[in-house]
Amino acid sequence: IIGGHILLHGNKVTNNLLILASEFRRIWLLGMYFNGHLAPDIYFLLSGLLMCYVCMQRLSNIVGIKNRIKFWLMVCLHRFIRLTPAYLMTVIFLTGLLVHIYDGPFFPQDINTPIIASCRRNWYILYLNNLFNFKFSCLQWCWYIANDIQYTIFLAPIFVTLLMWKRIAGVVFALSLILMSSLITYYIAYTNSFEIMDVSKEEIYVRPYTRCGTYMIGMLTGWLYYDYPRIEMGSKLVLVS
């Protein structure tokens, strides 16, 4: 992910873009980096896996609807408190302090540059920056945190509750979301004739409804790992997986 962003934004400080483009075409391994828009799905999968596995472990010892509701409220509050202080400090640093502490190829920056002006207008403490006016949102790279918070609040409680109530209900819910996410992504890409990810960033890349499929695959994996912790796989199956 870091390598992909370096290559993506490196052209802003490159003197001769034609030489850069010819080098990119010559080194075939760079294709892996230019398809890096799929890399965040790894973290969504891991996040869903850990969320489901840990929550099912803890909920197995909790009895009563009120206690389970309290548990989920604490999960959401804990997630919010863990992420928000660092997020807000970054916003404050970017909008108020960075213009006074600068040195490097991108500086000096005026206080009215787009990235700083967007943070002054459109910062969202409730993590809605992936839903509204993303092009002018504050800290665009925090779209991942917004998605993760939204999945924690909405998808995780519904899926785990359904799974513990009736296993088939949880599985159907997860598979439905995976299918829906794939169909929505296909529809948006097809109707807008998107061919490269950079063009479709605002419509596909950051939206919760196009990324939720991977998160649900992670949650299904977490459930399988919780229910069947001793599954033995042969070397061929491990290789395919």
Write a structural description:
The chain has 241 residues and is mainly α. The protein has two domains: 1-34, no CATH class; 35-228, no CATH class. Helix content is 68%, strand content 0%. The chain has helices at 2-10, 17-26, 30-34, 40-59, 65-97, 114-121, 143-165, 167-191, 201-205, 208-227, 235-240. Helix 4 (40-59) packs across helix 10 (208-227) and helix 8 (167-191) runs antiparallel to helix 10. It starts with a helix and ends with a helix. The mean pLDDT is 85.
Keywords:
241 residues, single chain, 11 helices
Give the % helix.
55-70%
First-to-last CA distance: 22 Å
| Overall spatial form | globular
Please tally the β strands and state the result: 0
Q: Approximately what portion of the residues adopt beta-strand conformation?
A: under 5%
Radius of gyration: 21 Å
The SSE string, one letter per element, is: HHHHHHHHHHH
Q: Provide the number of structural domains.
A: 2
Gist of the model:
This protein has 241 residues and is mainly alpha-helical.
Topology:
Elements: H1 2-10, H2 17-26, H3 30-34, H4 40-59, H5 65-97, H6 114-121, H7 143-165, H8 167-191, H9 201-205, H10 208-227, H11 235-240
